[in-house]
What we know:
- The chain is α+β, with helices and mostly antiparallel strands.
- The chain is about 25% helix and about 25% strand.
- It has helices at about 15-30, 40-50, and strands at about 5-10, 15, 55-60, 65-75, 80-85.
- Strands 1, 2, 3, 4 and 5 form a five-stranded antiparallel sheet that branches.
- A hairpin with a 6-residue loop joins strand 4 (about 65-75) and strand 5.
- The radius of gyration is 15 Å and the shape is flat.
Amino acid sequence: MIAGADYVVWDGLVPANRHAGVFRRRMHHSLKRGHTIDGLAESVDILLRAGEEPLRTGSVDAVDRSSWFTIFLNSTATVVVACCGGRRPTTMESADTPESGTQPRR
């Protein structure tokens, strides 16, 4: 962010444990596909422990778009509670493969 990365913090508060459920499913899905997301397992644990604490979420994209991060902030957006992300894949999976879950356009 100091180097000028794009970021956004969304309005609205969501209980930490609800984020934990969503991101736990993302973790299992990414692991099944052989992908890892730095800090994701730790973030899920932190979010589970935070329970009903209301959090804001945000996203940070590196200046060169090579990396991305999801951030979880306290309700006043003054403290980062958890963070996960990493390098973007250098190759994209074909949109019409069965693993992608999408159908080719016709």
